[in-house]
Amino acid sequence: MATDKRAFTMRMQPKNFEKIKFISEHNKRSIAMQIEYLIEKCILEYEKENGEILNIPNNQNIKENKIDDTIEKEIEAYRLELEAERKVKTSSVSEDTKRKNA
Fold it and tell me: Could you give the CA distance from residue 39 to residue 16 in angstroms, rounded to a whole number?
């Protein structure tokens, strides 16, 4: 099932994990859905007290962050480097074959 939800790693104290697991089972939710519910509840309470949080970028129109752009450029450069190495190896093998056949 495809989703547009952002994945991230979360660490918590074992005692808190067991408690949130208990609560999620009681509410017939997965742990992830229980945590998401609590986050949404917290956001609503915050906005009720402080006003709506504005200027949130649309996730579909932006990259995750500048690091992603840098990583993508590094991956592309590495891919091109590997491709160039393969061409050199292929041409070396071809020349060796020509010499042997000559």
Answer: 15
Which among 17, 59, 9 is positioned nearest to 34, based on CA atoms?
Answer: 17
CA distance 38 to 71: 33
Size of the chain, expressed as the number of residues it contains: 102
pTM listed for this prediction? 0.53
Residue carrying the six token digits 């994990």: 17
CB 31 within 8 A of CB 16: no
Condensed to tens digits (0 to 9), the pLDDT of residues 66-78 reads 667 777 778 888 8
Domain ranges of the chain: 11-53, 61-102
Q: Is the dihedral of CA 38, 44, 47, 48 positive or negative?
A: negative
Residue entry with tokens 């007290």 = 49
